[in-house]
Structure formats: structure tokens, C-alpha cells
Design goal:
By secondary structure, the chain is an alpha/beta fold. Helices cover 47% and strands 17% of the residues. Bound molecules: nicotinamide-adenine-dinucleotide (NAD) and zinc ion (ZN).
Length: 352
């Protein structure tokens, strides 16, 4: 699997950790900091530590795990650690973790002393196929997702498939939702390959293919003026359901589980609005429902979910903006959706 080139930086797939060591050994940096969460410090850091044991100018920064930690308080914690460790402008941040770590670490690095270099070492499927590529960094505020952030490209991305061996199955399925999305919006043949694969353990080649698809989009439209909006398929409704779930459910949905629901809802709207056929809508639902447990979407939550959607940064003039599908493999951006359409779509998913 070849190295992929993005907006001025490489995305390594083969011998990635050795590539990371080479990158560090080039000696451009005064010191480097590995940002982990409490799980990646146990499951992933030792593997990296083995490779860098001969290099002594580094420190580990560990934060608690989970979306609840992707906020300004934890970010201040990271900045304070950088200050305490005496990080100067030539320091490097290595974000070793899932999307929470790559987003928040990227944000902390891109703002510390007006920006220090960082690299992404994604350890979840979701961060490998999505979050680590494309230069979006950010944190949540009061559970409004990714509302504060920057577009800053990492210096490199190092994807090591072996990190996925310790990833819980539920997290694997979470990342899979973004792979399914890449097929649905961009490439029907890839969608068909996914349908035929063992999706509980997606092979490295399919992960590589997913990154190629995402990278093509972000290269063409780095700041989301047009085609990058395609990546928002499933996310307008999905993000709002995810946010609602995070504050209301004892065992909240993962990002991918919420996006899977969002994709069914938005495919339903696409069937009414942009010509997605009945057969393809049914196919999408069969695949997604076969992979993810059904979520009890409560009718009394709709108004709340809708008001969360109104705060979405993708909205135009206060109107809710969805990416839909014309057919599998062909997206359709900038569709203003009404409250009635959204409620009807949620009813369709929930079976109300
Ligand atoms: P996450 O970072 O919370 O990781 C999920 C869980 O897996 C955590 O408990 C983590 O500690 C654990 N984990 C990570 N690697 C592991 C490993 N190898 N073995 C065992 N456990 C491991 O969540 P995520 O799903 O990776 O990412 C979700 C986040 O990504 C969201 O905040 C979302 O907004 C963001 N995101 C960003 C972009 C972007 O373009 N920047 C794109 C998609 C998603
Ligand atoms: Zn996503």
C-alpha cells in the first residue's frame, strides 16, 4: 500500500512507526510530546516507546478518554503541560490516539505559541480513515461539536494497521460508518467491495482505499467551499443525534453509530428529494441495519435534536443544510431541509 500524498504532507501505511522514527531523527525539533489518552497510553504508547527508546528528548502527556474530554478544559491542561515542560516553538506534538486526540491535539498544537508542528498517529479505525486526514482540528463547547477549531495540516500522518488489534469491536464499527459513507458519496464500486467484505475486521486494503477517497476530496477543496461538503453526508442529522445521546443516554452512541442513523435518515430524504431510488434506499438500510443495533430514537427528543441541528456550523442563513445522494456513489450538496422533512426522516428510522 503506497504512501498517499495530501496537502503538503505524506500519509504512511507501510512501516509507519519506522517512518515516524525517521521523521523524528531528522532532528528538526527541539523536543517532542506524545499526546495519549488513558487507553492509548496503555495499548499504543508502549509500541511507539520501543521504537523511540534511544531518543530521550520527549515527554508523554496523558488525558482522560472520550468525547467528554474534547473541550477547552482538557485543552488548557495540554497547553499547561507544554508550558511546564518548556515546549518552545520548535517542539513537535505527536497525537497518538483516536479522533478525540487527533482533533484536540491538533487544535492545541495549532494554537500553542501561534502554532507548533504536529503529526497524527491515528489508533482507531475512525481516526485512520477520517479524522487524521484533512487538517480539521477542534474541540466541542457545551456539547456543540467541533464548534471551535482551525484548519491546520499535520506535518505527516502515520497509519499503523496493527493498532486496531486492541480496538473494541464497537469502536471498529464506529469507524466503519465513515468507510461506508465514503463509498455512498463517492464510489459505488468501493461500496460494493465493502458489502462483500468481513466488516467486523476490515482489511488494510479497504482502509487504504478509504483514505485515498477522503484525501482526494480534501485536496480538491481543503476549506469546504464545495465538494468537501460531500463528507457531511449523514452528519447533519447524525451529529445532532450524537450530541443528544451524549447528554441524555447512560451508554451514549459512538460517533459512527450516530452517523449510521444519520445516513439512513438523510438517504430517506434523498429518496424524496434528489432521486435516490427506492431500491438503493432499501439497500443502504439493509447494510446499515445489519451492522448496527437499532437505536430507540425517542419522539419526545425530536424538538431537542432539531434545536441542536439549528446550531450546526454547516447551516446557511440559519437554515439546515444537508448533503444528499442522487444515487449510490454520487453526492448532492447544499440541500436546505425543512423541520418536517427531518422529523419525517427520523420517524422513518424510528418506525414511529
Ligand atoms: P476516540 O478518540 O474517543 O476513541 C474511541 C475510544 O477508543 C477511546 O476510548 C480511546 O481511548 C479508545 N482507543 C483508541 N485507540 C485504541 C486502540 N488502539 N486500542 C484500544 N482502544 C483505543 O474516538 P474516535 O471514534 O476515534 O473519534 C471520534 C472523534 O473524531 C469525534 O470527536 C469526531 O468529531 C472526530 N472526527 C474528526 C474528523 C476530522 O476531520 N477532524 C473526522 C471525523 C471525526
Ligand atoms: Zn464523522
Amino acid at each position: 500500500m503506497n504512501t498517499i500524498y495530501s496537502d503538503g504532507y505524506p500519509i504512511y501505511f507501510e512501516n509507519s512507526l519506522d517512518e515516524l522514527v525517521k521523521f523524528i531523527e531528522q532532528g528538526k525539533y527541539s523536543r517532542f510530546f506524545v499526546l495519549c489518552d488513558e487507553h492509548t497510553s496503555v495499548h499504543c504508547f508502549p509500541k511507539l516507546q520501543e521504537k523511540i527508546s534511544h531518543i530521550d528528548n520527549h515527554d508523554l502527556i496523558e488525558v482522560s478518554a472520550g468525547e467528554e474530554c474534547k473541550n477547552i478544559d482538557f485543552c488548557i491542561g495540554v497547553w499547561k503541560m507544554l508550558i511546564d515542560f518548556g515546549a518552545d516553538r520548535k517542539a513537535l506534538m505527536i497525537n497518538l490516539g483516536g479522533g478525540v486526540i487527533t482533533d484536540m491535539g491538533g487544535f492545541a498544537a495549532s494554537t500553542y505559541k501561534r502554532g507548533i508542528d504536529f503529526v497524527q498517529v491515528p489508533t482507531t479505525l475512525l481516526s485512520q480513515v477520517d479524522a487524521s486526514v484533512g487538517g480539521k482540528t477542534g474541540i466541542d463547547v457545551d456539547s456543540v461539536k467541533n464548534i471551535i477549531g482551525t484548519f491546520t495540516q499535520p506535518k505527516a500522518v502515520f497509519i499503523d494497521y496493527d493498532f486496531l488489534s486492541t480496538l473494541p469491536e464497537r469502536q471498529m464499527l464506529s469507524g466503519l460508518a465513515e468507510m461506508l459513507k465514503h463509498g455512498l458519496i463517492l464510489d459505488a464500486a468501493y461500496w460494493n467491495q465493502l458489502k462483500a467484505a468481513d466488516l467486523t475486521h476490515p482489511p488494510a486494503e479497504l482502509i487504504h482505499a478509504s483514505v485515498i477517497l477522503k484525501n482526494k476530496v480534501v485536496l480538491e477543496d481543503p476549506t469546504e467551499q464545495n465538494i468537501r461538503k460531500s463528507l457531511n453526508f449523514g452528519h447533519t442529522i447524525g451529529h445532532a443525534i450524537e450530541t443528544w445521546s451524549l447528554t441524555n443516554d447512560r451508554n451514549p452512541l459512538t460517533h459512527g453509530e450516530a452517523i449510521a442513523i444519520g445516513m439512513i435518515c438523510e438517504a430517506y430524504i434523498a429518496n424524496k428529494r434528489t432521486g435516490l431510488s427506492d431500491a438503493e434506499l432499501a439497500e443502504i438500510e439493509t447494510v446499515i441495519n445489519g451492522l448496527y443495533p437499532h437505536y430507540k430514537l425517542k419522539h419526545e427528543a425530536y424538538e431537542n435534536i432539531y434545536s441542536i441541528m439549528l446550531k450546526d456550523k454547516k447551516n446557511i442563513d440559519g437554515k439546515i443544510n444537508c448533503t444528499l445522494l442522487d444515487r449510490i456513489g454520487q453526492f448532492n450538496i447544499d440541500n436546505i431541509c425543512t423541520k418536517e422533512e427531518i422529523f419525517e426522516a427520523m420517524n422513518h428510522y424510528a418506525g414511529h
